[in-house]
Q: What sequence folds into this?
């Protein structure tokens, strides 16, 4: 019997456009507006198989799902800053508006809604097309446009709600996901692997290769910092030589991709020099890795990517890559 064709669930919602960062902020609603417009047209510039993609609405993350990662005090502080329309929280980078708290709960819950559907075997993979992004957000601190750590919340939810113990998070946003690393650096059951521009040159200044986790979590943090100007070749070599062996030895039960598209050569938020074709390879790699280690349990979450048209092109390539690999899906 032949395997069923891959099916991809995408979480989207116009509410994500309601997090208003003002006219001059790179993390703008225009990013997702561009994505949703192309999605509504069936991504006409890409060769995505008909009927392969269905959409799913998000749900707000519940308090207890958020407090697995963030403090109660921080959630109150964030809510209050938004409702009082304070303009930003802690640093002008973290611009917020009246709707930001409500939208951030939806962004954190989007992955959770997707995980439930994956666990019901309704799809091969799922992605959350969300904002605000999450990977810089720490336990009680917003950072770098991020308020709630969407990927960290999703990893804990997958463990606690569905009893998938070993979660691997691969983060190829151009920047180091300090918040994800901090959430799990002493936890041997969540492996955080990040490939990013070297902290000497790049925000937020963490993600040195010496950072390998601590205590019981020593060895399940892996940072692969790249010098400015690094391109596809280096990333592809690391996939083969470092990332595949890490996947093989950790053997994750679920795979989360922190998918930021700001490493592209023409995205001026980093000095990396990726081509848009690299994202197709990353899509194929994610699908193949999930098929090998955790079939049907692949979730990606949108992080950075700040030029709307370029974001759409790179995301479309990534989706093509994801869908091109027939899933190895025994027994589901
Ligand atoms: Zn980034």
A:
């Amino acid at each position: 019997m032949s395997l069923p064709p891959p099916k991809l669930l995408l979480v989207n919602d116009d509410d994500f456009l309601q997090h208003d960062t003002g006219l001059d902020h790179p993390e703008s609603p225009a990013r997702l507006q561009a994505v949703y417009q192309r999605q509504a047209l069936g991504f006409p510039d890409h060769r995505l198989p008909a009927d392969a993609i269905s959409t799913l609405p998000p749900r707000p993350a519940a308090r207890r799902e958020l407090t697995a990662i963030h403090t109660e005090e921080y959630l109150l502080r964030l809510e209050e800053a938004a409702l009082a329309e304070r303009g930003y929280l802690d640093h002008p980078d973290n611009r917020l508006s009246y709707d930001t708290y409500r939208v951030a709960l939806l962004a954190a819950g989007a992955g959770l809604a997707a995980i439930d559907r994956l666990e019901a075997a309704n799809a091969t993979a799922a992605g959350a097309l969300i904002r605000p992004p999450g990977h810089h957000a720490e336990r009680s601190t917003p950072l770098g446009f991020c308020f709630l750590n969407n990927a960290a919340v999703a990893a804990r939810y997958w463990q606690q709600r569905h009893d998938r113990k070993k979660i691997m998070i691969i983060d190829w946003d151009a920047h180091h996901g300090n918040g994800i690393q901090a959430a799990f650096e002493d936890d041997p059951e969540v492996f955080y692997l990040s490939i990013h521009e070297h902290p000497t040159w790049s925000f937020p200044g963490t993600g040195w290769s010496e950072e390998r986790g601590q205590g019981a979590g020593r060895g399940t943090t892996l940072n692969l910092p790249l010098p400015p100007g690094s391109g596809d070749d280096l990333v592809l070599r690391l996939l083969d030589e470092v990332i595949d062996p890490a996947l093989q030895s950790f053997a994750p039960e679920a795979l989360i991709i922190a998918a930021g598209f700001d490493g592209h050569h023409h995205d001026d938020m980093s000095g990396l020099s990726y081509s848009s074709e690299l994202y197709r390879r990353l899509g194929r790699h994610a699908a193949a890795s999930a098929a090998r280690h955790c079939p049907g349990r692949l979730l990606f979450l949108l992080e950075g990517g700040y030029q709307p048209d370029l974001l759409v092109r790179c995301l479309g390539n990534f989706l093509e890559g994801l869908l091109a690999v027939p899933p190895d899906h025994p027994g589901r």
Summary: The chain has one domain: 8-324. DSSP finds nine helices and ten strands in the chain. The beta strands are 8-11, 53-56, 88-89, 91-95, 125-128, 167-171, 190-197, 221-226, 254-259, 298-302. The pocket of zinc ion is lined by residues 173-175, 260, 262, 269, 303-304 (CB under 6 Å).
